[in-house]
Amino acid sequence: MNRINVTKSFLPPKEEYEKMLERVWQSEWLTNNGPLLVELETTLQKKLDLPYFAITSNGTIAIQLAIKALNLSGEIITTPFSYCATTTSILWENLKPVFVDIREDDLNINADLVEAAITDKTSAILATHVYGNPCDVEKLESIGKKYGIKIIYDAAHAFGVEYKGKPLLSYGDMSTCSFHATKVFHTVEGGCVVCHDKELFERVKLMRSFGHVQDDYYLAGVNGKNSEFHAAMGLVNLGHLDSIIAGRKAIFGIYDQTLNWNKLYKPTEVATDLKYNYAYYPIVLEDEDTTLRVIKALQAENIYPRRYFYPTLNTLQYVPETYYCPVSESVSPRVISLPLYPDLDHGIVNKIAEIINAQL
């Protein structure tokens, strides 16, 4: 059997991409906010019904731009259970991450613990919609208003997710997303920033393009732009999004029906009124020994899940202060994401479940 990875990047029919690239050759415009990039931005803004939407070169720079555009300082309360970019973006902007533990059911930041972590140095909360499941957005935004602090959502996993009839990307003062090649929707590399204020939006656009327009310089920016080649991939992939999500949903159903839920659990979708994107299929096992045994058994069959997320971010050696997050520290060694992509053979999905069940 060929190697089965935790994910496989979707590639559209080659001829569709090549046809889109013809427009690049015709315009001879390769980057610097070209026509395909503008078209993709406009299309996504309308499709997702978002007020202000700026595409970036990746999801990490999107978080950094959000932090910078909001003029944050001091401390940012954040989650220990996320990809490292959530934490490193705070550190790169010379701010201090303050970790608040997660809930055991959905593995999102525990909003009930946030207020106790607020100090006179707190400028924002940066929370991740883990695996695309919504944080407690109502409570977090209530806390933000009460204390006058900003709310940023790392929505890297949440493209296309809707909560209470609204895009999950529309919550918070700002949200960011990743369009990395492994995501449900991708532009090979890419991301976006969403906000609700025109002045803030214009600031983000300046910041992602070195802070200048032609010969007029307004602020110290960075290169956070994306190219026409990436935009072309995004425009083509959008036409396949419904079938991508449907394929992922079908595999979800097989795992749901065949895994032994007496010996493991899946992070639950706590929120109601949710339209999901089936971004990841994580399971939490009883202990780390079982987790490692399952991984070894799968790898013996050329199947490679991922410990996503491991380790818990509050234990990283470059984090400046120690925080005790018992739930995250317990879950992180026990969680794995299972292979999930639209054209994954359903027979292999059943085999993965059988191998896991045999190790429990």
From TrEMBL:
Keywords: Aminotransferase, Pyridoxal phosphate, Transferase
N6-(pyridoxal phosphate)lysine modified-residue sites: K183
Annotated Gene3D superfamilies: Type I PLP-dependent aspartate aminotransferase-like (Major domain)
Single GO molecular function: transaminase activity
GO annotation terms (biological process): polysaccharide biosynthetic process
Keyword ATP-binding attached: no
InterPro entries in UniProt: DegT/StrS_aminotransferase (IPR000653), PyrdxlP-dep_Trfase (IPR015424), PyrdxlP-dep_Trfase_major (IPR015421)
Family: Belongs to the DegT/DnrJ/EryC1 family.
Name recorded for this polypeptide: DegT/DnrJ/EryC1/StrS aminotransferase
Source organism (scientific name): Leadbetterella byssophila (strain DSM 17132 / JCM 16389 / KACC 11308 / NBRC 106382 / 4M15)
